[in-house]
Design brief:
Elements: E1 7-9, H1 14-35, H2 43-65, E2 67-69, H3 76-84, H4 90-100, H5 103-108, H6 115-133
Antiparallel strand pairs: 1-2
Helix pairs in contact: 1-2, 1-6, 2-3, 2-6, 4-6
C-alpha cells in the first residue's frame, strides 16, 4: 500500500485564483476582526486567517512549481520549503507553521479563541501576505 502524496499538480495559472481567494479571506478576516468585541469567540476569524494563509502558501507553490498542498495542511510548510528552498526565510516558515497550527482548533471549536489571539494571528498573516505578494 502506498501513501498518497500531499502534492497536487496544477495548471500554470492556478496561482492567480488562489491569490485572489487568499486576499479575499484576508480582507474578510480583517473586517470581522474590526467588528469583534472583547470576550467574543474569535474562532471564525481565526478560521478565515488560516484559510487565507493556506491560500497564500498555495499561490506561491503553484506559481513557482505548479503544485499545491492537498489534504494534510501540516505538510504545507514542508512543500513551501521544498519549492522555495533558501528563498523561504525561517521567520516566515515559523509564522506559516504557527498560523496553520490553529486550523483544527479554530474550525472544530475545541476551545474559545479571544480577540487578543486573533489580533496576533492576523498580524502574522498580514506579514506573511506582504512577503508572499512580493513574489508576484
Amino acid at each position: 500500500m502506498t501513501g498518497k502524496s500531499p502534492r497536487k499538480k496544477v495548471d500554470a495559472l492556478h496561482w492567480q485564483g488562489r491569490l485572489r481567494v487568499a486576499q479575499a479571506f484576508l480582507e474578510a478576516a480583517q473586517q470581522a476582526h474590526r467588528l469583534a468585541t472583547p470576550g467574543q469567540d474569535c474562532n471564525p476569524i481565526i478560521s478565515q486567517i488560516v484559510l487565507a494563509t493556506i491560500a497564500f502558501g498555495d499561490s506561491l507553490t503553484a506559481k513557482r512549481a505548479q503544485v499545491v498542498n492537498q489534504h494534510d495542511h501540516a505538510q504545507a510548510p514542508r512543500l513551501l520549503r521544498d519549492v522555495l528552498g533558501n528563498l523561504l526565510p525561517d521567520g516566515q516558515e515559523r509564522r506559516y507553521r504557527r498560523i496553520l497550527s490553529f486550523k483544527d482548533e479554530a474550525q472544530y471549536g475545541t476551545r474559545q479563541a479571544l480577540r487578543d489571539e486573533a489580533t496576533r494571528l492576523l498580524a502574522d498573516l498580514e506579514e506573511f501576505a506582504r512577503w508572499t505578494e512580493g513574489f508576484f
